[in-house]
Design goal:
By secondary structure, this protein is α/β, with parallel strands linked by helices. The protein folds into 5 domains: 2-138 and 342-436, P-loop containing nucleotide triphosphate hydrolases (Rossmann fold, 3-Layer(aba) Sandwich), CATH 3.40.50.300; 149-336, Recbcd, chain B, domain 2; 475-581 and 729-758 and 809-866, P-loop containing nucleotide triphosphate hydrolases (Rossmann fold, 3-Layer(aba) Sandwich), CATH 3.40.50.300; 584-712, PCRA, domain 4, CATH 1.10.486; 919-1180, Lambda Exonuclease, Chain A. It contains 42 helices and 33 strands. A 7-stranded parallel sheet has the order 1-10-2-9-8-3-4. Strands 19-20-18-21-24-15-25 form a 7-stranded parallel sheet, with helices on both faces. Strands 26, 29, 30, 31, 32 and 33 form a 6-stranded mixed sheet that branches. Strand 11, helix 18 and strand 12 form a beta-alpha-beta unit. It starts with a strand and ends in a 5-residue tail after the last helix.
Length: 1185
């Protein structure tokens, strides 16, 4: 590879691949390339596409590019700047041109095309809806776990429930719901499934039942023999034989077989202990057949053979399940009108293989003239294929930027072999492949130490295409010193197993430490060294500044290891914070919060109250059962009842804040050792619940259901669910290695780099098989499904990723890094065993392994040490002089005109933010009228008020317009609002049918809602758009008497709201608003036979329905909604035209709709004039459509 030079003139042409080793300034270089494209190629900002893989990385890249543009603009105006690279780029362009380009770029920076891969795909689908076949109104999901769960449950019901109970007992532990749900995660259509099965699931299950019958027959035969005289005969045979291990055949072994044969209905549920026992008896006969012969052993052999045959079916059944998973979950999501992030990528890939592929490709090539793909080593084959197919022309400038040595996200779909294939395919010519060789993170000595460590093997990453680039440091020395003395920056500490207590060692003579023991020993040494470094007597300094706790990071593999380190540090008086990728819903606080909320949801349930009172959240403990009197429990019940009432009346968050205050939560928790962590988790959980409640309109029971689902959910953790740092104070950072990627810390501890990389016996195994010159992803269901070659490849890939993970860990350090190692059981396949030793073997004595390790010693760079002695002292810090603190007083001014507003805010004359609630009719909320029990039970007598409006809104939001049956949804939604009488359901069902069959007509276009599929509608479409300097006079100047009667103060900020329904029918888009308003007790009270607002005003200004529209300011409402949809469609449809695409507005007064009246009652219709909409849009948004 060529050395990367940011000034290389060839960089701004063709296709380029740049490998950026750890710390070499990848983001910095991308920002410089972006600047060069802006200035030297004069590309508009939105013509440069930058794609990365996380929201955090996208935000960082945006910030860096924006700052570089600002700096370049300053320099072009004659202001001196420090960045030499930016100065050189600006100097290559004529001064006036540079200034003009930079000013334009800064003004239009919100249009910058800097996305995550999923954000890019979503944008492509939005802007190219026709070419990509995107369905209108599809909802985007963070996770498709509910659909995987639904498919897995359906599979079990369809195929397993009909099996005999004893066979089901065999299948269930191996293929229950959690197993299948996890199995279905992350399998795409291009992954080869192993074993390859030709039969159907039904055929395979029939075959399984035949084998099960054979096993059952052998079992009953063996049982009959055993329960005869065989037990005593076999015991006597074994004890009188010359079998060396006969003493191990003790009475408990025979008793265990007694228990097994006693329950024939559990014959198939052989535990690992029982299986080992049967093998033990079979083994005895085979070794000593001369002494021990008995028909029972023949039966046992037959049983074991049948059991092996039975077990072989499990991988095949799992493989058949996997093969159908992608299609089945996809169909379920399609029916529900939703898609996951991965579906976005698959949809674009399918579009590029579809009939409109050429049009989509041409559109994207026209849209983007330069493309920078960040973290390209984490791209999967489908993503690579998309970029290769779209940007295969000679005009697009393309950059793949990443580091294969840091490809560590295979569990998220990253595929290092896809990257390798791009390198080898010739898509990027060898002469256009570059490497960055200057590390700006670590000191020169640490860089040299890492180079030496990974150079110890000729092929350090096991995959030849992943090369170790020898880098140099570009950072000034920032060494860690102790009492003024320097030590080697890379410390390798070895724990000799001869110095470990016997109970920490595995059985046998090899002196192997057990893994749990090694973890604890290495954790204790890590904490001891941290305490020593932070001790003021050590005088540890980084570049003359005292070493602080926040300068230290401990990198772990799992969150469990992190918690162990954190607890040990806490015991030694060192504050630490966890930065892990585990979900807050997996925390103990989530379980406790659920217990508290259950009690609040049922305030009369004493059992739930007592369980909640015992939680740490409410400050309880077991002693409270003895201490609290009956009066105390009554007071607790009153508190919970108050909270319950608050939740029902004012919502979750007000209740939660009252809970915090009522039980003094903050004060009590912060007095506990781990209180800051607990409090952070509780408040984080509350925020997530609040967001879910608002997003999905959850009631109390649904909130609890949502919380329970998140607690039990497995799989990848969404970013917003990840544990937050509990403190930003001076504290040691504990992070998973995956989470630490891209970060740096002066001192890094790596206690657990030695994990076993052997292929697991159970679970799925991901690896690659070769097809021609390409590597194809494969997934095997269990180790037993692999042949020797596949097993070797899977093992190689596991170890290679462990080596890459190790590279990421040690390259986080700036000044010093600690690695811990020893002779540990089953670690011969670990990354450390491969990298640190010439030939690692568990048979080698500990002292010889240490001697082999010592060859890595290099004065001033690497120091190999035997593990030093442990200390147990707590950290004692010298008191620093306290600086008096004072609150900073606010001197600025707040522009009170800037706020969020809505249609509701405008008609109320609000000067504060007014929250518009979906589904509430303004007029209807002003009175609650009970039904007269003697009145006719019709839709006109149905209770007036907000609850009716909300119930009918919810029903019409959830029902399928094309279906015949709506009773289940209607009954459920009515019950939630207290409408439980049968006549209320009957009336509502009749109303739904009338609404769906009523002809709707504007102009010459007529349709009914019954023809509108779920995919062609969006319910409760929430919108925001910017408002600049809106006044009532400006509004009246555009809308005239539509804006009459308003009295609000000038507002700037954002207009927000909810549109009840937006639908598309035959290419036109319509707004529909449901109104439950009561205008009278007969259909004629809802008469509106007019084609538009203008006609109604001219012919019948006193019309009741028109007056309702005027008094409720609904005329203003639908004009605001029209602007919102107008702006929305401008963004979603590439060739949007108001006259061609906007159909109009319907306000459906639900009490007055009768299909027999041909849409002339209960239906208000209008289509604002194009000029009015454009003027209103320009006025509201300050002139920017």
């Amino acid at each position: 590879m060529k050395k990367f030079d940011i000034d290389d003139r060839h960089l701004l042409t063709g296709r380029n691949l740049i490998e950026a080793s750890a710390g070499t300034g990848k983001t910095y270089s991308i920002a410089l390339l972006f600047l060069r494209l802006l200035l030297e190629k004069e590309l508009e900002l939105d013509k440069i596409l930058a794609v990365t893989f996380t929201n955090a990385a996208a935000d960082e890249l945006k910030g860096r590019i924006r700052q570089f543009i600002k700096d370049a603009l300053q320099f072009s105006r004659g202001v001196p700047i420090e960045n030499r690279e930016i100065r050189k780029i600006v100097d290559r362009v004529e001064e006036k041109t540079a200034r003009s380009l930079l000013e334009m770029a800064l003004l239009s920076f919100d249009d910058a095309a800097i996305f995550t891969i999923h954000g890019f795909c979503q944008r492509v689908l939005i802007e190219n809806a026709f070419e990509s076949g995107t369905t209108f109104g599809t909802e985007l999901l963070e996770s498709d776990a509910p659909f995987r769960r639904e498919w897995a449950a359906d599979f079990i019901r369809k195929h397993f429930y009909s099996l005999p109970s004893d066979l089901l007992n065999f299948i269930w532990p191996k293929m229950d719901l959690p197993v299948l749900e996890e199995l279905a995660r992350g399998v795409d259509s291009k992954t080869r499934v192993i074993p390859e099965c030709q039969e159907s699931i039904t055929e395979k299950l029939e075959e399984l039942q035949r084998v099960a019958s054979a096993f059952q027959g052998h079992f009953h035969q063996a049982r009959q023999i055993w329960e005869g005289q065989a037990r005593d005969e076999i015991q006597e045979l074994i004890q009188s034989s010359s079998l060396k291990g006969k003493s191990s055949y003790k009475d408990d072994k025979y008793e265990a077989l007694d228990r097994y044969f006693r329950y024939p209905e559990l014959a198939f549920t052989l535990s690992s202990t029982q299986l080992a026992l049967l093998k033990k008896f079979s083994y005895a006969e085979k070794l000593f057949s001369a002494d021990i012969q008995h028909p029972f052993f023949t039966c046992i052999d037959s049983m074991l053979a049948s059991y092996r045959d039975l077990s072989s079916f499990v991988p095949e059944l799992k493989a058949l399940f996997l093969l159908k998973s992608r299609v089945e979950t996809g169909q379920r999501k399609e029916r529900a009108g939703v898609q996951s992030f991965d579906d976005l990528i698959q949809r674009i890939f399918r579009a590029l293989n579809g009939p409109l592929a050429a049009e989509l490709k041409a559109s994207l090539q026209k849209r983007y003239h330069a493309v920078l793909i960040d973290e390209s080593q984490d791209t999967d084959p489908v993503q690579f294929e998309i970029f290769k197919r779209v940007f295969d022309d000679d005009q697009t400038i393309l950059f793949f930027i990443g580091d294969p040595k840091q490809s560590i996200y295979s569990f998220r779909g990253a595929d290092i072999y896809a990257y390798r294939d791009v390198v080898n395919s010739g898509y990027v010519q060898t002469g256009r492949q570059y490497s960055m060789d200057t590390n700006y993170r670590s000191t020169q000595k640490l860089v040299d130490a890492v180079n030496k460590l990974f150079s110890a093997k000729g092929n350090p990453f096991l995959i030849p295409e992943i090369e170790l680039v020898q880098v140099k440091s570009g950072r000034s020395p920032v060494d860690l010193t102790e009492n003024g003395q320097h030590s080697a920056p890379l410390q390798i500490w070895y724990q000799s197993s001869t110095e470990v207590e016997a109970h920490h060692l595995a059985r046998g003579r090899k002196q192997l430490m057990l893994k749990p023991a090694a973890e604890k020993i290495f954790a204790r040494h890590t904490v001891s060294e941290i305490v020593r470094l932070l001790d003021p007597r050590t005088k540890a300094k980084i570049d003359e500044a005292p070493l602080r706790a926040r300068d230290i990071a401990v990198l772990v593999k799992t969150n469990k290891q992190g918690r162990m380190i954190k607890n040990m540090l806490s015991e030694r008086g060192v504050q630490a914070v966890m930065s892990g990728d585990s979900s807050v819903f997996a925390s103990f606080e989530a379980i406790e919060l659920r217990m508290v909320l259950l009690a609040v949801s049922e305030p009369g349930n004493t059992g739930l109250l007592k369980a909640a009172r015992m939680t740490s959240i409410l400050g309880g403990n077991l002693n409270d059962f003895e201490v609290l009197s009956e009066q105390d429990w009554e007071r607790e019940q009153v508190k919970i009842a108050e909270l319950s009432e608050l939740w029902q009346k004012r919502g979750f968050f007000p209740m939660f804040h009252t809970l915090l205050t009522m039980y003094g939560l903050k004060r009590n928790l912060l007095q506990q050792p781990n209180g800051e962590r607990v409090l952070t988790n509780i408040t984080h959980l509350a925020e997530l619940l609040k967001d879910a409640i608002e997003a999905h309109d959850l009631g109390i029971s649904n909130t609890l259901e949502y919380l329970s689902e998140r607690i039990t959910e497995e799989g990848q953790t969404p970013r917003e669910f990840e544990l937050r740092l509990e403190s930003d104070s001076d504290a040691v950072v504990i992070s998973t290695i995956h989470k630490s990627k891209g970060l740096e810390y002066p001192v890094v501890f790596c206690p657990f780099l030695w994990s076993n990389t052997n292929v697991r016996t159970e679970g799925t195994v991901k690896f690659h098989v070769t097809e021609g010159e390409r590597a194809v992803a494969a997934i095997a269901v269990g180790r037993s499904s692999l042949n020797d070659e596949q097993l070797g490849q899977a093992s190689l890939e596991n170890r290679s990723e462990a080596l890459r993970l190790m590279y990421v860990a040690v390259t986080r350090a700036v000044s010093r890094c600690y690695i811990f190692w020893g002779k540990i059981s089953r670690m011969e396949s670990s990354a450390l065993a491969y990298l640190l030793h010439r030939d690692y073997s568990t048979d080698t004595k500990p002292e010889k392994l240490f001697a082999d390790l010592c060859r890595l010693n290099c004065p001033g760079l690497i120091e190999v040490l035997s593990m030093p002695g442990l200390t147990s002292d707590k950290l004692s810090l010298e008191w620093e002089e306290q600086v008096p603190l004072a609150a900073l007083s606010f001197q600025g001014s707040i522009p009170w005109s800037w706020r969020f507003t809505s249609y509701s805010g405008l008609i109320r004359g609000a000067t504060e933010e007014v929250e518009e609630q979906p589904g509430i009719d303004e007029i209807e909320t002003k009175e609650e009228v009970n039904v007269d029990p003697d009145s006719n039970q019709t839709i006109f007598s149905f209770k007036k008020g907000a609850q009716t409006g909300l119930a009918w809104h919810d029903i019409l939001e959830k029902v399928d317009f094309t279906a015949e049956e709506h009773q289940v949804i209607a009954k459920d939604e009515l019950s939630k609002r207290g409408f439980t009488e049968k006549w209320m359901l009957d009336v509502s069902l009749k109303m739904i049918k009338s609404v769906l069959q009523c002809p709707l007509m504007i102009g010459d276009k007529e349709f009914t809602l019954s023809k509108v599929t779920h995919a062609r509608r969006i319910s409760e479409l929430e919108f925001y758009f910017k408002v600049n300097g809106l006044t009532q006079n400006k509004l009246k100047s555009v809308l005239g008497d539509v804006a009459a009667g308003l009295n609000f103060k000038a507002v700037s900020g954002f207009m927000k709201g909810f549109i009840d329904l937006v639908l598309e029918y035959e290419g036109k888009f319509y707004i529909i608003d449901w109104k439950s308003n009561h205008l009278g007790n007969q259909l004629d009270d809802y008469l509106f036979p007019y084609a538009s607002l203008t006609e109604a005003k001219a012919k019948d200004p006193g019309c009741k329905l028109l007056q309702s529209m005027i008094k409720g300011h609904y005329l203003l409402q639908y004009h605001v909604y029209t602007v919102a949809l107008h702006l929305y469609l401008q963004q979603r449809l590439r060739e949007y035209d108001y006259d061609r695409h906007f159909g109009g507005v319907f306000y459906l007064y639900l009490r007055g709709i009768d299909p027999s009246r041909a849409g002339k009652t209960g239906v208000f219709r209008d289509r604002p004039h194009r000029r009015t909409v454009e003027q209103l849009t320009a006025m509201l948004t300050g002139g920017q459509e």
